[in-house]
Amino acid sequence: MAKTGLAGIAEGRTDLFRMDPQKIVVKEGWNSRDFDDPENQAHVEALAASIREVGVKEPLAGYLEDEKFVLTNGESRYRAVMLLLEQGVEIKTVPVMAEPRHASEADHIASQFIRNSGRPFTPMENAKLFTRLIDLGWTEKELAEKIGMTTERVQQIARLNAVPEQVKGYIRKGRISTTLVQRIQAKAKNAGEITEKVKEAIATAKADGKTKATPKHVKKSAPKTEGKTKTNYRELFEEMMSYAEHDDDGNFVQITMPQERYEVMKAAAKTQGRF
User: Fold this and answer.
1) For burial by CB atoms within 10 Å, which of 10, 28, 159, 275 has the most?
2) Parallel, antiparallel, or unpaired: how do β-strands 60-65 and 94-98 relate?
3) All residues at 6 or more sequence positions from 12 whose CB lies less than 8 Å from its CB, including other chains
4) Which long-range contacts (CB under 8 A, 24 or more apart) does 140-145 make?
5) Segments of 171-266 assigned E as strands
6) How many C-beta neighbours within 10 Å does residue 83 have?
7) What b/e sequence results for 27-58 when a residue is b if at least 16 CB atoms lie within 10 Å of its CB, and e otherwise?
8) DSSP letter string, 44-88
9) In the predicted structure, residue 44 carries a pLDDT above the cut 50
């Protein structure tokens, strides 16, 4: 009996299928990974060096379309294999696995994030991916539950996709942190103002001898507290969070604030008040 589906175009099978990498189809622009990013290019080269020594250990994932295997997860590994083939390294097959049979286009896109076992996506790459899923009808809440983030964080990252292309270029080149761009974007009235404020921050960082602008390169003005007789804990909490700086993976790494504001917050904490 003739084999059908993925088995019909694969070459042998154990627990996984094995396939000639040159038969794998990669849709142009489908992957949210930015392979023009020098760090991603270096990542592919590092993978190629590893694969040259030990082969492809993590299977590539995809689905069958018109009797062709379309890649959904593992393009960095795929590119590393193709690079080795160009260099004359003989690689006859690579391990592949099928996505769930009834998975939707949105499921295939989401799998880029959920099943990514290699280099984490940058915030800009996630912004592109999240926007595509939202455009396909996913709500921000559904997306947050699917990938294990808060709805607020999904919204924050997705908005990055709307910043001007020039600003995206500055982020890719490492000239400004995504955390600072997000703060500028939240307060700016239009795209022109975003670009202007980003350029100002980069200039400030350069004058400070830094190659990358971060939130510390934007002067923070403490709120006026004269005349207040009652501590507003919610306002203090929101102010404290405004000083928090994320790394580019979205985690809190430090909170830097003026000494006088620290003393106010420390005194408020001692009262054990509730928000």
Assistant:
1) 10
2) parallel
3) 18, 93
4) 143/110
5) 244-246, 252-255
6) 17
7) eeebbbbbeebeebeebbeebbeebeeeebee
8) HHHHHHHHHHH---SPEEEEEETTEEEEEE-HHHHHHHHHHHHTT
9) yes
CA dist., res. 80 & res. 96, Å (int): 15
> What pLDDT, in 10s, does the model give residues 179-236?
899 889 988 999 999 999 999 999 999 988 999 998 877 755 545 555 444 556 666 6
The token pair that represents 187 in the structure block: 């307060």
| Structure letter (DSSP) for residue 213 | B
Residue whose C-alpha is closest to residue 235's, from 225, 226, 227: 225
In whole angstroms, give the CA distance from residue 209 to residue 188: 26
pLDDT given for residue 233 in this prediction:
65
Q: What is the rounded distance in angstroms from the CA atom of residue 143 to the CA atom of residue 190? A: 27
